[in-house]
Amino acid sequence: MGKGILEVFIQYWPVFLQGALGTLKFAAIAVLGGTVVGTLVSILHLSKNRLLSGFAGVYVNVLRGTPLLVQMYISYFFIPMVIPALNSIDKIYYVLFALTLNSSAYVSEVIRGGINAVDKGQTEAARSLGMSAKNCMIRIILPQAIKNILPALANEYIAMIKETSLAGTFMCYELMYTRTLLANKYLVWQPLFIIAAIYLVMTLSLSWLVKVLEKRMSVSD
Amino acid sequence: MKNTNSTFKSITAAFLSLTLAGCSSTAAVSSSASSSTGVNMNLANPEKLDCSDLVKPDLDLSNATGVLADVLEEGVLTVATSPDYPPAEWVDDNGTIYGHEMMIAKYIAECLGVQLEIETSDFSSTFVSVDTGKADIALSGYGLKKDREEAYEISVGYVADPESEESKHTLIVPAGQEGNYDSLDDFVGKKIMGQANSLQEMYVTDEILALDTDGTTQFEKVATLDQAILGLASGKCDAVALDNSTAENYVASSEGAFALSGVYFDLTPYGDYSGNIAIAKKGETDMIEAVNACLKTAVENGYVHTWYLNAKAAAGIQEAE
């Protein structure tokens, strides 16, 4: 069956390196963007306004209830159909757009959970001292919530690393795309094992980092 | 793969020189004023897509309508392709999307006096790109199929290498089993894999599944051909349907694991169209007429054949023994 796995890796390691960097970059952008959008969505979700919380609920349900690949296809083909001016934009932005929105749905639920987990007495105390609802959220609730949600956010990043593999479908340079590059050289099976190993190394080392992070955060408890 | 070792060794350096721009796949290929001598393009030349010195057809573009008018106005021709099919189109060691069909695309762009932009996606999505207007035309190793003719404007057929058996389509099997197959009948009752929406899918359906009276033959469609090859290697299927030159390359690089069955599909029922075609959205007749004029000139002057030979050498594909 042709060359061995190690042989292929030694010969083409820069290809895999670039793919791995692409994957990490896509995941980072998606989770960062997802955190910003997701925070807004979670605040809408917790809002007393039925319309706003209803919208946020639908947003989360639609994005969590449909496959990411379908979202990518719709983003990639449908957005430029509706707004032709966007046709000149590199495809990577459509893929990142879908990744970010998808991530924001999950992150918003994480944040909502984190905010809800802060003891109600904190809000009551802050409000009884005369703080506005906005001030109370920003100065009292969110700082405590963030501590709870950081590990969950890091897990979302780890999950996103695997999700970005779908970007390879659109020939964006990430780890899964290296398979297409090397299949053109008639190397069809070796890259799969190399790719799996690299994903594993990335996710395991990140889980380890999350564990260290959790330990350090618990010091102040 | 003996001849290609030096190419492979240089890939390390080549890929390091790639930017870390993430998705480097929308390659805008700028036209170049540098001159290359005739059609014998230097493969080491990064401007290998240059074809400014070639003979161009006389195109009357004054009354252009549809996407052709848009192309001329914007100065960019966008071509959809699935870069997983060397030597027609693939991502070469410099990260450039290259191949003889990409040369055709560049040539058409230069004939129209516009820039070329390549829109890459998986094979099935190349059709969607043309439909949704993301791309003006598509070149992705298409052969003529009835449903394609109905759904798209199709160009004249062009044969990359008139001397080879390029346009033949065959099946490959695990080594040692090629003796079991003398005709297409022998594939009845077997499990066959092939690329979804490909020509081979049509051939298998028309010429093997049609012979099957008790429904024992299975045809499994895969998104990319390498999945089918992996299926054959892992024993998931008995045969893979593919074009002859790709078959020869896979057999050569399998180091004895695969063999050519020696059985070919009968292409006579499919009419005059031989070789490959380009497609445009249905109704875009001006666009496809311009493409036809360019293709005719390129074939008549032997450019397509030269591009094909250059691309084949660049892909490290050896002539089959």
CATH architecture call of chain A: Orthogonal Bundle
Low-confidence stretches of chain A: none
Coarse morphology of chain B: globular
Measured by DSSP, the beta-strand proportion of chain A falls in under 5%
Structural domain tally of chain A: 1
The name of the CATH superfamily of chain A reads MetI-like
Span between termini of chain A: 57 Å
Structural class of chain A: mainly alpha
Helix content of chain A: over 70%
Alpha carbon gap, first and last residue of chain B: 13 Å
Helix content of chain B: 25-40%
SSE series of chain B: HHEHEEEEHEHEHEEEHEHEHEEHH
Q: Which CATH class of the largest domain in chain B applies here?
A: Alpha Beta
CATH architecture of the largest domain in chain B: 3-Layer(aba) Sandwich
User: CATH H level of the largest domain in chain B: which superfamily?
Assistant: Periplasmic binding protein-like II
> Helix count of chain B, per DSSP?
11
Features:
heterodimer; A: mainly alpha; MetI-like fold; 8 helices; B: 321 residues; alpha/beta; D-Maltodextrin-Binding Protein, domain 2; six-stranded mixed β-sheet; five-stranded mixed β-sheet; 14 strands; 20% strand; globular
